[in-house]
Design goal:
- There is one protein chain.
- The chain is mainly alpha-helical.
- Helix content is 45%, strand content 0%.
Length: 378
Amino acid sequence: MLSESRGLSRSKVLLFCACWLIGTAAAQTEAPSQVDFARDILPLLRERCVECHGPSQQMAGLRLDRRRDAMPSRVGANGVRIVPGNSAGSRLYQRVSATEPGKQMPPSGPLPKAKIDLLKAWIDQGADWPDALSGEKSPAPPDPVVATMSSLLREDRRSHFLRVLVDHPDAVNAKGEGGWTPLMYAALYGDAGLVRLLLEKGAKPSTQNESGGAALMYATGDVGKVKILLDRGADPNLRSGDGRTALLIALGRTGSSPVVKLLLARGADLKAAGPSALVTAASTHDPELLQLLLDRGAEKDHLPFTRTIGCEKCFDVLVKAAAPDDFSNALDIAVWMGDDATARALLERGAKPSPGPPVLRGSPCQTAVRRLDKDFNP
């Protein structure tokens, strides 16, 4: 289905180009007179950026959940992330406003122009980032008993762990390095029986560490541990420091349908995940998971066809859920990302390029055309 089964006609190719220049003829919108970080910028960073550039991972060395990392005092190998008063010199703005495949971020598709304008205005206005929202915390010294318990679980020395727990029952809710509790370590390294034991000893199921992580988030690879935590009152809608819930974390695991079903049955808010739900699930190449989300009403404003390359069944699941306009929206993103195989498949299914100004020789569109139709000579 995704193979390059037939070439594109000259007329289709010319129409196909138009989507590279979407909106360039549209009137420019004015950014707000004063951008508010808490209202306008922080939600945007959490929703579209910190999953890949937060405490759990810093792709390309970029972290955007903490002010001192986003606006470092010195220039490193990756350049200055945000330069107050200078959007053109800020790597963040350079990437979200880029139009070349491989440079434009987020990789799932460009931000709406209004959001890009907000980021630009915020930076040019001085990139005010209040201390209360800086992401900095004053951690308490780690409890040495919890540090010992952590080491024992990592080394799979269960009997020794239990002995320490008996000798130090008050440590069940103490915090070790980074604010981790014994329950969090058990959720990640232990088994369901150990998680149950700690809960019976009084462990609090919804405690969060300094990164916003909770035991339920670390247990998403094991449906048994997830069930025990939910039975004991774990909150399925807590958000980590990078804005993810246990549901979103589970969606990133192949074969996680049983865990996802359980979380949804116990009150996990699928709507709060927004388009990230389908995007994250599509990356696992799990058609059963995609179908489950669609059946449960996942947001599908922008179906992530480009994330299904290599999984024909996943592509077919999205095709069945797509409206006619979805194909064209996906086509715009596929071309933007240089994803030729998906673009061809979408064109064959009736996708129409978005209207735009005439194609310019030497534009990025011409490069895409040469890849898609080797016989076309502009």
